[in-house]
Structure formats: structure tokens, C-alpha cells
Amino acid sequence: MGTHNGLMRIFWPSDAPNEPLPGVLVGFRNSQLDIFVVSILQEVEPRQVENALAVGTLLRYSPHDVKELFTRCGHSSLSVLGQVNPRTPSGHFDDNLLTAYTDPSSRLPRWRCPADVLPTIQVVVYDRPDPVRMQYLSLTPIALALGDKTTSEQWDTAFAKHEAEEAERQRKKAILVEKLKLHKVVAHPPTQKEAALPVLIEQVNCSSEIDALLQQNIGMIGRRMKRALSVSERVVESANNLWDYVYESLWYLFTVWVWPVVAQLFIYGLMAHRIAGEYILRALDWRLSPDAPALKDISATAQQIDIRLQQFCYWPIQYLTLRKRKASWGSITNSHPEYIRFYNSLWLVANDVIMGIALGSFIIENSAFVAVQVDTVFSTWSIEGLRRMISWLTGWPPPGGLKLNTELAAFLGDLFLWVIEYWAGA
Question: What is the pTM of this model?
């Protein structure tokens, strides 16, 4: 690190602790000039952290395989990158270990480096995306038309028109991009830092879960693991508290006897609704002949029922896909489009129901007022307004300078006025 004059980039988390406590920097060393800090482990020694990373102590109780995150980050393991606020600074400078000092009054750390090997350091402060809220960074944002449907889902044609339009726009955009490539003056190959951008994006996305796992196991460094209780010890411990025994018995009764029955009844009810929905969809899509329109093509109400039933029939498939999301890390964003589609359709249905209930409740509670207002509006625009217009057209002098047949205008005016009077019930 000290024998070159290149730009050294250090990626520093924005939520890193800035207390003046000693600690160890843990992260990924992408290259000699690219250092990515994932976590700051306080009140521990570098040698202890190295041993804990080697034997996997800091990666215990991982909810999923931590190698998946490391693979996405382009590394096989974490590394000790240096120290923070060391108690006794080392007399010699190690170019493979960083030394940083934090200050509560400053967001950025200070780096210790001898003057003769001082490199140019660029500190990049990044915010960790929260995987629980499905936050993540991406170089390719999600398209409006999601192209992740399998062959078994092709029957869902509620948004086929919009997806076809989006696919056409994407095709035209790709053609335009190819044309723009022909107008480049110089096409230079990407630099090492530019090529490392996708890996850095993945490291930022995975940093939150890796840091949480390290902070969870930091208490195991330098300490002996507590021996797990034997079966007899667990029996004695549970028997010491009667309430725990009663709670465990009730929980066992619920999980073994009650919950399976309730789950099966719910599944049977869902399947019954699904079968009924399929028959209604077939009825709405039935045609007398191949060229004849279906009921959903000539009725707006039938079209809305068709769309809502398709969404209802598609929800179980989406829900099963979302359940698979919990089988892996939240930083892996393969199921995010399905999540967005599922809750978007739920919100659309809930929005319609909420607006319908609100409007219906208002009409029921204020039925007299609403009836008077509706009657006034219809009377003003469809009766009184027409009367004034016809009287103006049949009046004298000629309206607006128009030359009308006086006798014919009077006859038609009286006829239309009589029709309006009859229609108004006068």
C-alpha cells in the first residue's frame, strides 16, 4: 500500500460507531487499493478476531448458509482489515493493516500513515440497505412489466396489454442503444475500479446482514462456549416452573391437534373459492363463436369481475413464491418483483373495497341530503336547462342572429317542451 501513489478507496459504513473505543475493522479486501469495511468489532483484539474468523466462531447461529453471501460478494471469507483506536499503537507500519481513529464530533475517521508512504485516500461513506424493508441497490432497476412469469402462469392475462407495450418499448430502446454505440469516438475498456462496481454493489447490499451476524457473535470471542443442557437437565429445568409446563402443553396441543385441522379447513375453503372462481372466469370468457365477443368484452362490470378473479386465483401462487423468500437471505433479491406484484394487487383490491365502503356509508347515512342534491342537479341540467335553451331558440328576436323558420321552430319547441314536461312528470 505504501509503495504506490494511486488512489486508495475505503468504503466506510455510515452507521459505524464513532466512540473512541478500541476495535477491529472487518470486511473485504477487493484489491490493494479497494478496501470495503463491513463491521467494526469493538473491545476485541485483531488476533482474536482472526482466529474467530478462521474457525467460524463469528459466523455461528447463521439463519442461512453464509457462503451464499460471500459468493455474491466475490470472496470466500471475511478479512481483518486493521484496527480502530488502538490502545498501544504499533511501532512499525504494516501496509496490510489500516489504523483509524474515530471522534464523536466527526463522521469520518482519521487514518494513520507514515509521511514517506502516504497514499491518496478516498473515504466513500455508504448507507446500508435494510433487507427487512427490501431495500437494495441495483444497476438494473426493476421494470414495470415483470418478465419473471413461468409457463404455468401464462393464463394470467390481466396485464397482458401493458406488458406487451412495455416489451415493445424495451425493444425500441435496445435498438436505439445499439445505434448510439456506433457513434462512439473512442471505446476504452473499463478500468479495474469500473469493473469492480457490480461486486461493490453486492457488498453494500449484503453488509447489513453480515454486520448483524458478526455483532451477534462478538461475545463469543475469547470466551468458552456454554455447554448445552442435557435431556435430564432440560427436564429438571422445565419441571421447576409449573407455568412453563402448562404453556408448553397448551402449545403442543395447539400445534399438533388444533392448527393442522384449522389449516386443512382453510385450504379446503380456499380451494372451493378457487374452483368457483375458475368457473366464473370461464363463464365470463365464453363465446358463442370464435369471432363473437365474450361477456367481459361488452360489460365493464364483467371486465372488473374478471380482473379481480384472476388476481384472486393468482394470489396463492404469489404467496407460495414469497414464502420461499424466507428460505434464504434478505439480501438476495430474486423474489422482490413477485413481492411488489403481490402487494400491489392486494392494495388495488383493498383500495376499491375501502372507497366503496366509505362512499356507501356516506350515502346511507346522508340519504335524504344526497337524494335532494341529486334531484336538484338532474332538474337543473336535464329539465330547467333544456327548457331555457328551447325557449331561447323559439323566442323573438331570433337567437344569436340565427335565421330560423318561425312556424317550424315554434312547433318543434312546443313539441319538445311537452316531451320534457311529460318526462319530468309535471
Answer: 0.61
